[in-house]
């Protein structure tokens, strides 16, 4: 399966997509841990939840593709 980066037309593997999603989750977690402005807390939570869902989705896809 081929994945497409949203920021460009570059294609990349599922493995790379998982790595990128984990990096995105890590960045979102760091932001959440550092945010102190009440107006940004909700944004930080939503960003972290979205990143977690993306990692979960991609890992599920990777398990489906993996041979038994």
Shape: elongated
- What is the oligomeric state here? single chain
- The helix/strand order is EEHH
Number of helices: 2
Total number of strands: 2
The N- and C-terminal alpha carbons lie at a distance of 17 Å
* Main β-sheet description: 2 strands, antiparallel
* Proportion of helical residues: over 70%
Radius of gyration: 14 Å
- Integer count of domains: 1
Instruction: Output the structural class.
Output: mainly alpha
Looking across the biggest beta sheet, what order are the strands in? 1-2
Strand-residue proportion: 5-15%
Name the average pLDDT.
85
Low-confidence stretches: none
How does this model look, in words?
The protein starts with a strand and ends with a helix. It is mainly alpha-helical. The model has no long low-confidence stretch (mean pLDDT 85). Strands 1-2 form a two-stranded antiparallel sheet. It contains two helices and two strands.
